[in-house]
Amino acid sequence: MGEAFHLLASGNHEVVAVTVRSLGVSGSATLLAASFAIPLSLAIVLKSFRGKPVLLGFFNAMIGMPTVALGLILYLLFSKTGPLGPLHLLYNPVGIMLGQAVLITPLIVSFTTSALEAVNPDVRLLARTLGASNLQEAAAVVREASTGILLAVAASFNRAVAELGIALMVGGNIKGLTQVLTTAIALETVRGEIELGIALTVILLLIVFALNLAVNLFKRRLG
Amino acid sequence: MADIVLELEEVSKAYGDVKALVDVSLQVRRNRILVVLGPNGAGKTTLLKLMAGLLSPDSGRILYKGNPVNAGLSRQLRRKVTMVFQRATVFNTTVYENVAYGLKIRGLPKAEVEERVLEALEKVGIGNLRDRKARSLSGGEQQKLSLARAIALKPEVLLLDEPTVNLDPSSASAVEAFISRIKPETTLVLSTHNLFQARRLADRLAILFRGRLLEEGEASRVFSSPTHPEAARFLSGETFF
């Protein structure tokens, strides 16, 4: 344990690089997924269209998708002979980022939809009678659900940063290129580098706890 | 008729098989209070929502200053006609931000927003609550906030849907006192099922029952000599249930 904390305290180059890569990949994946999933959730809640329950049911079912299964599907899509082979996404951080975005999109859609549906329907009427346009009305609803949406995004980031299957199968755990916290922990532990594994695990847990703490503080501020 | 701000011509509205309003024709005149009186389920809220541009009629026309309100114009109407709902609804922000919302989305300068918000809060007597979370207010305070939020916009027509129905007697009388104060300078439509409130506030009176307009006219005339038998029964205090 002593060595692990020494690695953390000394700012070991390898540990820092893996941590920054993890934050970058999973942070980008979360932003990408949220930029698609939040407007989609708004459309699901505010618009009437056929197949709405089916669409929502699909996203709810996809929440439980095992990361290794998704990793395998993406591996087949991204491999040289796969349909997306020419994009060279396999063994590439962008490939991991896209895979994680696919993984967490259902989570954000499902949780955000629940948060938006929980908003008092009179809020929409209120915004309208105060002169809001359709966009301003949607913004008012989003603002009312902001705590729930923030929780959905934070939970999704946690899921992305802590997943192993996609990072391993799509990224290939290449040191200095596609290695992220979870794959590094798995590799170093198997190699017997327990101290490094512990140091990386402590960082992963700190990221998750710090984010949850920040979200809770923000939630309290919003009331 | 320059003093007619809003006009409904044979307006009907149904929710599925339920007819909420049937061929209602009504005029809202400048700087007068039109009280829409009727029992629960008469169609009062639907009528006010149509006037506010929050619903579209199934048939008939709504005219704002003589111009028909179609889908394209309904947002313009919503910027001139503001409705205060029966159940006070507030945004999950401070009292100040709640009142400022409508002014900000109109793109008014910050100084003007602040001036109008503070003026509106003072008018309804909750200037001391400006920094409180709106959701932490009592029902009466939330209804006053709703009124402040509406009058800050200086609407051409203010629609109040049973504004005192969920309030205790003291809050209700404070809201009524406020309505009486703004009466001379405001075009107002107020819905109520309360005969006494209608007597106290109405310049003109419209009696609505099961989606149909039974009678409409100067309040003093309708109260003293109603022509429609069912309106007469309602005004005499007989129950409709």
Describe this structure in words.
The complex is a heterodimer of chains A (223) and B (241). The model of chain A has no long low-confidence stretch (mean pLDDT 92). Helices cover 77% and strands 0% of the residues of chain A. Chain A has helices spanning 2-9, 13-46, 52-62, 67-78, 93-117, 122-129, 134-144, 146-162, 165-171, 181-190, 194-222. Chain A has 223 residues and is mostly helical. Chain A has a single domain, classed as MetI-like (MetI-like fold, Orthogonal Bundle). Chain A has 11 helices and no strands. Chain A is globular. With 241 residues, chain B is of the alpha/beta class. Chain B has a single domain, classed as 3-Layer(aba) Sandwich (Rossmann fold), CATH 3.40.50. Helices cover 36% and strands 27% of the residues of chain B. In chain B, the strands form 2 sheets. Chain B has a 6-stranded mixed sheet, sandwiched between helices. In chain B, strands 2-1-4-5 form a 4-stranded antiparallel sheet, with helices on one face. In chain B, a hairpin with a 2-residue loop joins strand 4 (59-64) and strand 5. The longest helix of chain B has 15 residues, at 110-124. Chain B is globular and about 50 Å long. The model of chain B has no long low-confidence stretch (mean pLDDT 91). The A-B interface holds A 120, 122-123, 125-133, 136, 140, 143-144, 222-223 and B 49, 52-54, 75, 78-79, 82-83, 85, 87, 89, 91-93, 101-102, 105-106, 133, 135, 149, 153.
